[in-house]
Specification:
This protein is of the alpha+beta class. It has helices at residues 2-21, 32-39, 139-143, and strands at 49-53, 56-58, 62-63, 65-69, 73-80, 86-90, 99-100, 106-108, 117-118, 124-133, 161-171. The strands form three sheets. Strands 2, 5, 6, 7, 10 and 11 form a six-stranded mixed sheet that branches. β5 and β6 form a beta hairpin. It is globular. InterPro entries: DUF4384.
Length: 172
């Protein structure tokens, strides 16, 4: 009987850890821009884009990312900071060529770069969106989807895009 009680207690603890420890992280959205980018999902027929890299950093510390895309296209990196301000990180003055090749990792900053990305103010959680477009779309075409679309007929790009996103926590 004692062994059964120990086993049931262990099972209950395991179940409690499993059901509470495996939930997605929930964030307090700081504003409509942060929430819109955080909640944005590509269309069902979108191609795969994945990113790895810095998720936490202290002020002044370098940040780096590696992006993989299932298609060749243009990479756009958009940030919404803890003050709900939107900025385009890539392309930038140092990385004007933002082409990404199919199944070839792209490093940001590039490994041979003479520049770096660093964690700066404001501190807190920023959301980064990594978008790859395959046609002539500009990042504005992607970010404006869903806004003002009450028309029965509208022009929309057909070339497709993929995305991944990441929350980065900047600490003092």
């Amino acid at each position: 009987m004692r062994n059964v009680l120990i086993m049931l207690t262990g099972l209950a603890i395991s179940l409690a850890l499993f059901t509470t420890g495996c939930k997605n992280t929930e964030y307090v959205h700081v504003g409509p821009n942060w929430q819109a980018l955080h909640d944005m999902e590509p269309e069902n027929d979108a191609f795969s884009v994945s990113v790895t890299g810095s998720q936490k950093a202290s002020l002044g510390k370098p940040l780096s990312y590696t992006v993989h895309s299932a298609k060749t296209g243009k990479l756009w990196v958009v940030q919404v900071d803890p003050d709900d301000k939107v900025s385009v990180i890539v392309p930038n003055a140092e990385m004007q060529d933002h082409q990404i090749l199919k199944n070839v990792p792209l490093h940001i900053p590039p490994r041979d770069a003479h520049w770096e990305m660093a964690a700066m103010e404001p501190v807190g959680k920023s959301v980064l969106g990594f978008f790859v477009t395959t046609g002539d779309e500009d990042i504005g075409d992607i970010l404006s989807q869903g806004q003002g679309t009450s028309k029965a007929i509208r022009v929309r790009p057909v070339s497709g895009w993929g995305m991944d996103k990441m929350v980065v926590d900047i600490k003092p």
